[in-house]
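Continuing the series of single-chain predictions for the mutant panel. This is the parent chain; the variants come on the following pages.
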Amino acid sequence: MSLKAHWESIYERKKPEEVSWYQENPARSLTMIEFAGLDKEDPIIDVGGGVSMLASVLYGLGYRNLTVLDISKKALETARQRMGAAADAVQWIEADIRRFRAPQRYRFWHDRAVFHFLTDPADRELYLETLRNSLSNPGYVMIASFSLEGPEKCSGLPVQRYSQETLRQALGPEFECLRSESEEHPTPGGTSQQFLYSLFRREV
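Parent structure:
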């Protein structure tokens, strides 16, 4: 099964609030975005945003240059329907992040639980190439990945867990880590997942 088929199957079988990464209030992501000191018109992309509440919450806070990218058409359709008429103000992109060609430069790159699924070094390099080609300079990157105490698999797929140092090494010297925080995420199934949220700034 292809990666796209895998995620389409997940979103066809489960409601948004049933997937393990569901988060009603993306509080930590909002904290990172606020810390970056963005203007409300600065372009923000939510990579692997799928059925995340982030775009809806950001729109409610007055942000008006929002993009949501996901490999799953079903996930994007669900998120659009949930936002109603406000969804027309968001750019929705169905794409594999490893092959994405951005139509613009983004001031803030938000990734909650995509990068850690890239266990193949070649796939990680494709992701990082896309990131470098898509991010403004200066620009900000937030990656939330499973920490070293997190699960070794998620949604039937293996993951690559990170510490603050190994994630910094993965991104490379042009990215400065501004802050890094742990989060214990309660899943709808009653378990918990250990995440590491890290905010980086691309150096001029």
